Amino acid sequence: MDKNFNYSNLKLGIIGGGQLGRIMSHKAKKMGFHVTILDPTFNCPAAQVSDKHILGGFYDKEKLEQLVQETDVTTFELEHVDTSILKELFDHGHIIHPSPYIIELIQNKYEQKKLLDKKGVPVPAYKDVKKEEDLAAFGFPVIQKAKMGGYDGKGVQMLKSEADVKNALQTESFIEELVDIDKELAVIVARNIEGQIKCYPVVEMLFDERVNICDIVMAPAKISKETADKSREISIEAIKALDGVGIFAVELFLTKKGEILVNEIAPRPHNSGHYTVEACATSQFEQIIRAVTNLPLGSTKLISPAVMINLLGEEGYEGEPFIEGIHDALEIPELSFHFYGKTFTKPYRKMGHVTILDDDIDQALQKAMQAKDILKIKGSKKI
């Protein structure tokens, strides 16, 4: 795409119709683009705000080809897709970013780790598991990860002792040393077609330990300037190693000894970047559209400290969602409420999020915890 391309007619294709696709579509529509999404679920979150919905699965080669053929640029809101047809289309000149080759690499967490390690990006010690004895290579406790298909804590487990080996994941996997974590950090990095790179502030992620889902994001992270600079530097090196175009979330471990290690990379907008909608000059959702359509990247300036909390489906409920406490929550100053339009809730499903701005990050966190106590997503049926 050259600079003389007629952007008033641009057709954007998004593979995936969840909450990330929904907010991407919002931003693309703001810019006047035509948006087609591909998703197997009728009336999915992104379909509610897009121009066209191709109803099809992420491994349906025919529907994937239809999306690419009907649009000028194709991008992703998830990485679990069939890359074989996308690689063929990419090789024939269709604009697909990040490239299907990068998506394929990232789908395999072991291959992703190997590439980063080879390129000199710091990662935890790891080892391929070819036989059961390999699980004990680092001693115990140790982290076992499925090579393929894991997300939101799925496909990851701790083996605390040799007795746990009988419960090991029965799939292709690798092990990682158990890192002595001080904080879990993340950096959103954008890279456009011309190689321009922009980095967002370093954020801290807090997890719901019951299901290992990122629960709270604090922007900026409460870390030293030196640690923040080093985190950004390592994150940029990781994306350069991939040679990727789009938005990438680099998840990092800050160890108790002060080391910074890359955990993994998501090749799309990410939960840790939701705060950018209200708190940054350019949101991650607009930034990915700029990146993949060969437009200049926007400013990543943090306008205000912010805390984001996920709104997860309440335990003990499923069915049609019911939002409890919205009136009281919206009394909290500088609170923005996002509901994703999912028609069915179940325990721990991501149903929405809230972002709170405050000049003082501790005050923002206090208000966020207050909102978390007030807002509950319940369902029509008790389980």
TrEMBL record:
Gene Ontology terms: cellular component: cytosol
Binding site for ATP: 109, 145, 176-179, 184, 263-264
GO process annotations (BP): 'de novo' IMP biosynthetic process
Pathway: Purine metabolism; IMP biosynthesis via de novo pathway; 5-amino-1-(5-phospho-D-ribosyl)imidazole-4-carboxylate from 5-amino-1-(5-phospho-D-ribosyl)imidazole (N5-CAIR route): step 1/2
GO terms assigned for molecular function: 5-(carboxyamino)imidazole ribonucleotide synthase activity; ATP binding; metal ion binding; phosphoribosylaminoimidazole carboxylase activity
InterPro entries: ATP-grasp (IPR011761), ATP-grasp_carboxylate-amine (IPR003135), ATP_grasp_subdomain_1 (IPR013815), PreATP-grasp_dom_sf (IPR016185), PurK (IPR005875), PurK_C (IPR040686), PurT/PurK_preATP-grasp (IPR054350), Rudment_hybrid_motif (IPR011054)
Catalytic reaction equation(s): 5-amino-1-(5-phospho-beta-D-ribosyl)imidazole + hydrogencarbonate + ATP = 5-carboxyamino-1-(5-phospho-D-ribosyl)imidazole + ADP + phosphate + 2 H(+)
Keywords: ATP-binding, Decarboxylase, Ligase, Lyase, Nucleotide-binding, Purine biosynthesis
EC number(s) per entry: 6.3.4.18
Residue ranges occupied by any ATP-grasp domain in the UniProt entry: 113-293
Family: Belongs to the PurK/PurT family.
Described purpose of this protein according to its UniProt entry: Catalyzes the ATP-dependent conversion of 5-aminoimidazole ribonucleotide (AIR) and HCO(3)(-) to N5-carboxyaminoimidazole ribonucleotide (N5-CAIR).
Subunit annotation: Homodimer.
Descriptive protein name: N5-carboxyaminoimidazole ribonucleotide synthase
Organism: Sulfurimonas sediminis
